[in-house]
Amino acid sequence: MSFQEAMDGYRNIVPITLSMARHIAYRIGFDKIQLLAESKGNRLSEISDEKRSVYELDIEHYRQCALYGEEMEVSLSGAKRLPEVMLIGLVSVYDAMLFQLLKVVFSLHEDIVLTSEKTLKFSDLSSYGTIEAAKSALIDKEIESILRESHHEQFSLLEKKLNMKLSANIPALPTFIEVCERRNLITHTGGRVSPQYIASGKNNEFDISDVTIGKKLDVQPKYYASAVNAVYEIGAKLCHVLWRKYAKQEREIADDALNELGLSLIRGRNYRLAEAMLRFGIEMPKLYNDEIKRMMAVNLANSLRLQERRDEAKLVLDNFDWSAVSDPFKICIAAVREDVAEVARLMKLHGEKGPLTAADYRDWPVFRGMRAKPEFIESFESVFGTRLFVKSESLVETPAEPARAQLSQATA
After folding, report:
1. Distance between CA atoms of residues 264 and 274, nearest Å
2. Cα–Cα distance between 88 and 203 in angstroms, integer?
3. In which region does residue 228 sit, left (phi positive, over 0), alpha (psi from -120 to 50) or beta (all else)?
4. What is the pLDDT of residue 182?
């Protein structure tokens, strides 16, 4: 499973699981007790009513009922701790990703490791059989030594080893470091604040104004959502920085992948994270070409618009000259500017055989909000001869075009 897939799971599925866990634990325990009472007990009608039923059990079955009650309490307690378990897993996904990422980089550029102070004993060297196996072991040893350090120190070590800046101008970094430190608290102190946590807060500029040594920190839904976004952002940015530096021949693929990531986040309505990734992409030097930068700009502006930050969205678009762009760009820009009259005009101008299909107008996030406008609906239905809103089962999903074949892959 890729880092992106794992993080999407933590962002989308885990919150649902967390919200349902206590209810499910209670329901399972209650159903067991109810079944036992109804099958083995005697209902006392004189003290029962429509809202509750009271049963009398013999001592043997009462013990079983008490056991079910204890099981339910244990399950409820476990469900209560589930957010903490998920936070531990969240950071573990990042650690696993970093190991694999560095494994690829160090394997492609062995000189990074061969200048390291890490050594292998002759007895160990002879056991590997081949030089390649020994090199792989040395790389693993080097990576493990990095991962044993704190997450903040990992950045410092990698900056020295790779001779590049990794931690500058990353707004999410303090939040990320705090998440990792809270994971350590959960693992080692049961979530209670330690002197090390306080010191890390001072050194890494995350908020410690409301914490004292010994205070228990929990994992509430709002905190969890922020933690997922921070880990997602740091991991994804690190991947793309190293990808672009150490596989320059794949720069076009990397740029497309970054734009697609931003688009995927917009589709999933995670507009703030989409904004962070797309802004990172636009500001990145030496993008493959101007077209991909414009795609990122349109998607970035759309993510801002969907956060009700229309003035900022307009500023992003105003940084570019759009006079000579293709028709799909023009339609998307009009949509981001919320110029429904222009979108309707272009839709009618190009007709049913235009650059955008009916499915594009129905599905692309760039038309969110636009699809509620009467003028948009009227134009769509007159051009395509069908209703804009149809039952989902009547829509047939078709394979997507290659990433750079159509603008739909950048602005959907």
Report:
1. 8
2. 22
3. alpha
4. 95
